[in-house]
Amino acid sequence: MTISTPSTTFYQTIFLVNALIWRLWYSLGIGFVLDRQSNKKKWTRHFIKYGEGTEEAWRQWKGLYHLSMTMCYASFVAAAFKMYNLPPDWTYGMALLRHVVGCALIALQLWTVVSIYESLGEFGWFFGDFFFDHAPKLTYSGIYRFLNNPERVLGLAGVWGIAIITWSKAIFFLALLSHILTLAFIQFIERPHMQKLYGQSLRQDSGLSKSLKRSL
Known about the structure:
The chain has helices at 9-40, 42-49, 54-83, 95-125, 157-166, 169-198, 207-215. It is globular. By secondary structure, the chain is mainly alpha-helical. It starts with 8 loop residues before the first helix and ends with a helix. It is found in: Endomembrane system. This is Phosphatidylethanolamine N-methyltransferase. Keywords: Endoplasmic reticulum, Lipid biosynthesis, Lipid metabolism, Membrane, Methyltransferase, Phospholipid biosynthesis, Phospholipid metabolism, S-adenosyl-L-methionine, Transferase, Transmembrane, Transmembrane helix. The chain crosses the membrane at residues 12-34, 64-84, 96-117, 157-186. It comes from Cryomyces antarcticus.
């Protein structure tokens, strides 16, 4: 649909609203499910109530989370595609610079995502410690050697890269909203659960912060 429909105001609005809805669901909807799971095991209890087990609840959750994440970013890219206009002259203004910087930020986010998955594995990537009591030992390896929460900034670098390439106020708004909602998710959903689960084992300062403090 993104490729076959014209880039009129009507279709641009539809794609922007679609991207907004998926972002709200991915941050607020998924966040609500995880909050209820953290405090009352609501998701797991639902499956146990109807004769399933913890493993099935975990499997269904992974499917829901993966679909939500995919649609969130796919709808954002689709909306940006609708708002994008190919520069008539690449040497005029900042057209070439915007595309170079934007592509670099997209590559940075992809590298960050791969690094996070390599460090956390499937269990950590899908918030396994919300669903199982036997949480793994807390370790700081890979990208987490340097940053406590790489998704705070680097995890959304590509979203800002697409906004810079598109150079659209609507896409910049979506990027800003995405960043704000991600920070809220980390602060109000992820961090309280990690604090409750790991307590004093949580590192307060990242490796990068410690290095900067020693240098100063």
